[in-house]
UniProtKB/TrEMBL annotation, chain A:
UniProt feature, compositional bias: Basic and acidic residues: 531-547
One Pfam family here: TGT
Top-level taxon of origin: Eukaryota
Domain tRNA-guanine(15) transglycosylase-like: 30-234, 454-494
Residue ranges, annotated region (Disordered): 29-49, 531-557
Gene3D superfamilies xrefs: Queuine tRNA-ribosyltransferase-like
Protein's recorded name: tRNA-guanine(15) transglycosylase-like domain-containing protein
Ranges of compositional bias, category Polar residues: 548-557
Species, as recorded: Piloderma croceum (strain F 1598)
Matches recorded under InterPro entries: Queuine_tRNA-ribosyltrfase (IPR050852), TGT-like_sf (IPR036511), tRNA_ribo_trans-like (IPR002616)
Any one Gene Ontology BP term: tRNA modification
Automatic annotation (TrEMBL), chain B:
Phylogenetic classification of the source organism: Eukaryota, Fungi, Dikarya, Basidiomycota, Agaricomycotina
Name this polypeptide is given: Queuine tRNA-ribosyltransferase catalytic subunit 1
Keyword set, alphabetical order: Cytoplasm, Glycosyltransferase, Metal-binding, Transferase, tRNA processing, Zinc
Domain of life of the organism encoding this protein: Eukaryota
Subcellular location: Cytoplasm
Gene source species: Piloderma croceum (strain F 1598)
Domain tRNA-guanine(15) transglycosylase-like: 12-371
Length: 557, 416
């Protein structure tokens, strides 16, 4: 595939503004706004940070039909790992065409969603064959070469592309030599993506139209991480300079920096391992968060991230994939100044029957009903028998749409806008015959009133009867709770004394909510039991195949 | 219930009616999707309603096990429990008792079975079935019947039919004494297996009780019998059932079966087929089912059906994307489920329009050309429709085969 800037109109431009750097430190918490201007008349897509990105599996948001993900306003950034499309060449999204092919193919709104394309699923830490100089392994049958990647990217025109990088997924720990190679390859693959496109003579388009995020590589070696970043800032000469002209330095073509925490944690665990401390099976990443990952404290990651960012410009977006808890998100906002986090953990909570129920800053929602624990749970394991007769809305921290309207006095609890807590009647009914209107006497123009929320008892029932609707409702709810959480973070940071207030509130949050996430552990156990009781009827082979290709997010169909 | 026939086909026995129940008006003929355990696979009730569905089904047997009557009572009934504001129908639970449990024993008192939770012997009586259905709170409830497989022969078939009549009386008595007759409408179920004489006796007996039942179901079919037998029994029942009561054929879901039943005078049908087949990657279309797992769809950027108003097709979800996610992602199942429910609703909606416009025979012919033109018409369907005055082969210029046997239409897997 050739670069075809002439047959396609220009790409969109991503800009990022730190509206209120709350601290002078390059790593302090910060407020920002990402703005994506498409090459047409539509208004820019604007997303405030700190914010979150929604992860996808095979390109779609797990459990959500298109009408549901449109309804869920929390969904703004979307990450599309491309590797499953390498199973069949050419990858089918490359055939879509148009100005926003990925939005079109997967049904994301160009007005609402910023779509990021990455080669690999950042959560996938399974062991893989080694990458080559000109080849990256992926979990699908084939890997991808840097030149093929470049051609796919230009065909798919994502809003943001994550450059290929050489992160080893062979068994850690990795040698010094391996690290050096990783740096060289990652640099050269970025440079490949930054090769200027050919332009018409009279065109004043940008020869570097892509919005590129780059992985901060170097593993757990502080020096290697620093060297990689310094390499990005180095003024290139000769052939290297020629390759990316008119850019002078690789970093000039980079819009954001990415940290994938899974490989970092796997390497850290391996180091503990080699020091003869036994650790759980590090390659079991099909449950979230793995015991191994939980054993690596956020504090172990922070110096590594700082080493990467230290020399780099502060005004670029910082993205973290696979944070394991809201506690970790808060610490990474506070101590590293991270702007965007993926929602993987919250989305997976929906798979295992957990309805999230927490807020930032914390609020008093009455006595903790889990008296046996000293801290509040982050949510409810709706498999638990205690919910069989519980007719409350999903979260105590939030109101539902219907009952918020009946409130006389203003309530300090916000409404959860998700389709589980605040369902609306359909805005229209498909009419299948000329007389169908007799079924709908009410005026179509009457304002739609919120319906009562879906109750815990109903979700409990759906989970135990293995009905997929449970996961759809929970996925929407959990994304909305995470959205409210990050919106709370932004509100606190916007305070005149933002950093200080934020620090206090983070401490209170950590004090209030259980970081060990026992409720997830319980839910996973219940989930496994129900799956097992149920799995008898189904071919194990089919099920394994599904689990394998969807990285454990599989919910039996 | 208010039931009113508002149009009749000039040729066949098909009719359009208006059925008003406690949760609104449902126009007939209609297909009812099945929400066995208070949910249609992966969808919310609002999504189901948006597809133009005004009547769906819950299974009593399952609802009684989970969430159980206590929870349903506390929730204020199944409508509130699942957030469904339109009409709801429940079966009696008898069919599942027989099909899901080998140990069920039928006595005159009721169906004796081992509780799936405790193993304790448990009795489902006609009175108990009605009482459970009252708790669920469906707008249409079914009598408990003595179900035998449609392949059963011998004296058991007659015995089951006669018992079903006696159980109907017990259901009616219990229902009337409960004082809930205005909210829940009790349907009788015609049994008698594949035996025309037994069916006639059953019809006579049940029609005698017409003033005490709101409608009639035709049961004991669609259980593996030959299609030729199926339509003849269906016709016998539909012909004889009273004009001013809705007629419901249980467990019918294939497009050709639905249209034949409508032509014979059936008003309602239900089946898990459209939602179940969606999960396995089969999308229903007017040119036949489409197996999205086949490799030929892998690069096809067209939707399932460009004419289809469902959320999946109208949003342009491509066959290529569906091929990539189907049987892997629940979202793939949701997309095809939305489409298939819409397909069933379109099939029946277009039948309503055709009956009103006096073009139902043409509708039948054009449906069969598009659906079966390439593989040939099932002989049983040709015969069934001839019995109500429509010759499918009339006016067909091209050669169409008529295929004997039970002829369906499927795209088989190519292993991809
Ligand atoms: Zn919610
Ligand atoms: Zn459709």
């Amino acid at each position: 595939m050739a670069d075809v800037s002439t047959t396609h109109p220009g790409f969109s431009t991503l800009s990022f503004h730190l509206s209120c750097p709350a601290s002078a430190s390059p790593f302090g918490p910060r407020l920002g706004r990402a703005s994506l201007k498409r090459n047409n008349d539509s208004p820019a897509v604007e997303i405030d940070t700190p914010g979150f990105l929604t992860t996808t599996s095979r390109g779609v948001i797990p459990h959500l039909s298109r009408d549901h993900h449109r309804f869920t306003e929390a969904i703004r950034w979307v990450l599309i790992p491309f590797e499953t499309f390498l199973e069949r060449l050419p990858p089918v999204p490359t055939l879509q065409g148009g100005s926003t092919p990925l939005h079109k193919f997967f049904g994301y709104s160009p007005l609402q969603n910023i779509v990021i394309m990455s080669a690999r699923d950042p959560f996938d830490g399974r062991e893989l064959p080694p990458n080559g100089n000109d080849h990256i392994s992926s979990y699908s049958m084939r890997g991808v070469t840097p030149s093929a990647w470049r051609s796919y990217v230009f065909a798919c025109r994502p809003d943001i592309v994550i450059a290929l990088s050489d992160t080893p997924f062979t068994k850690p720990p990795h040698s010094q030599k391996r690290l050096t190679k990783s740096l060289e390859r990652s640099t050269s693959w970025l440079s490949n993506l930054l090769r200027p496109i050919e332009l018409d003579d009279d065109s004043n388009s940008n020869p570097h139209p892509l919005n590129i995020f780059v992985h901060m590589v170097g593993g757990t070696d502080l020096a290697a991480r620093r060297i990689f970043s310094e390499g990005l800032l180095e003024t290139l000469r000769d052939n290297e300079a020629e390759a990316i002209k008119p850019l002078k330095r690789l970093d000039d073509g980079v819009t954001g920096y990415v940290f994938d925490l899974v490989p970092l944690r796997l390497s850290l665990v391996a180091e503990i391992d080699s020091a003869n401390i036994s650790s759980p099976d590090i390659l079991d990443t099909t449950t979230v968060p793995t015991a191994a990952q939980m054993s690596v404290d956020t504090s172990a990651l922070i110096p590594l991230m700082k080493a990467s960012l230290n020399s780099l410009p502060t005004q670029k977006i910082r993205l973290v994939n696979s944070a394991i808890s809201p506690h970790e998100i808060l610490r990474l906002v506070r101590d590293v100044g991270i702007d965007v986090f993926d929602a993987h953990w919250a989305q997976r909570a929906a798979d295992i029957g957990v309805a999230l129920d927490f807020r930032f800053p914390i609020v008093d929602t009455g006595p903790n009903n889990q008296t046996h624990r000293t801290k509040k749970d982050l949510g409810h394991n709706l498999y638990d028998q205690v919910y069989a007769h519980d007719f409350k809305r999903l979260a105590d921290c939030f109101m539902d749409g219907a009952s918020s309207l009946g409130q006389d006095s203003p309530c300090n609890r916000p409404v959860c806008p998700c389709a589980a807590c605040s369902p609306l009647p359909p805005c229209q009914h498909i009419s299948h015959s000329s007389i169908d209107s007799e079924s709908y006497p009410e005026s179509v123009h009457a304002p739609r009133q919120f319906l009562p929320p879906f109750r815990r008892a109903y979700l409990h029932h759906l989970l135990h009867t293995h009905e997929m609707s449970s996961h759809s409702l929970l996925a929407m709810h959990n994304l909305s709770v995470l959205d409210a959480f990050l919106s709370g973070v932004r509100t606190v940071l916007a305070h005149p004394n933002g950093t200080a207030v934020f620090t206090t509130e983070v401490d209170k949050f950590v004090e209030e909510y259980d970081e060990e996430m026992k409720v997830f552990e319980d839910a996973r156990k219940s989930w496994t039991e129900v799956e097992r009781a149920r799995g008898k009827g189904r071919l194990a082979r089919e099920k394994d195949k599904q689990a394998e290709s969807t990285l454990g997010t599989a919910v039996e169909l | 219930m208010q039931f009113e026939v508002i149009a009749k086909c000039h040729t066949t026995r098909a009719r359009v009616s208006r059925m008003k129940l406690s949760h609104g008006v449902t126009m007939l003929p209609t297909f009812m999707p099945v929400a066995t355990q208070a949910a249609i696979k992966g969808l919310t009730p609002q999504q189901v309603e948006s597809l133009g569905v005004t009547l769906m089904l819950n299974n009593t047997y399952h609802m009684n096990l989970r969430p159980g009557i206590k929870v349903l009572d506390d929730a204020g009934g199944a409508h509130r429990f699942q957030g469904w504001t339109r009409n709801l129908l429940t079966d009696s639970g008898g069919f599942q008792l027989v099909s899901l449990s080998k140990f069920t024993k039928i006595t005159e008192e009721g169906a004796l079975f081992a509780s799936p939770f405790t193993g304790e012997p448990t009795m489902l009586t006609p009175e108990e079935s009605i009482s459970i259905q009252h708790s669920i709170g469906a707008d249409i409830i079914m009598q408990l019947d003595d179900v035998v497989s449609s392949l059963t022969t011998g004296p058991r078939v007659g015995e089951a039919m006669e018992r079903s009549v006696r159980w109907l009386d017990r259901c009616i008595d219990y229902h009337e004494r409960s004082g809930k007759k205005d909210r829940h409408n009790l349907f009788a179920i015609v049994q008698g297996g594949l035996d025309h004489d037994l069916r006639d006796i059953c019809l006579d007996e049940m029609i005698k009780r017409k003033d005490r039942v709101a409608g009639y179901a035709i049961g004991g079919l669609s259980g593996g019998e030959e299609k030729d037998t199926f339509w003849r029994i269906m016709k016998q029942c539909a012909d004889k059932l009273p004009e001013d009561r809705p007629r419901y054929s249980m467990g019918i879901g294939f497009a050709e079966d639905l249209l034949v039943c409508v032509a014979l005078g059936v008003d309602m049908a239900d089946c898990v087929f459209p939602t179940r087949t969606a999960r396995f990657g089969v999308a229903l279309t007017f040119s036949g089912p489409l197996n999205l797992k086949l490799a030929k769809h892998a690069k096809d950027l067209a939707p399932i059906d460009t004419q289809c108003p469902c959320p999946t097709c109208s949003d342009g979800v491509s066959r290529a994307l569906l091929h990539h996610i189907i049987t892997q992602e629940t979202a793939g199942a949701h997309a095809v489920t939305q489409h298939n429910i819409t397909f069933q609703a379109r099939l029946m909606g277009q039948a309503r329009d055709a009956i009103i416009n006096g073009t139902f025979p043409d509708y039948l012919r054009s449906f069969f050309v598009a659906y079966f033109g390439d593989v040939g018409y099932p002989e049983w369907a040709v015969n069934a429709l001839r019995s109500v005055g429509v010759d499918l082969l009339d006016g067909i210029s091209k050669d169409v085969n008529v295929v004997p046997g039970d002829g369906g239409k499927w795209e088989y897997s190519d292993r991809s």
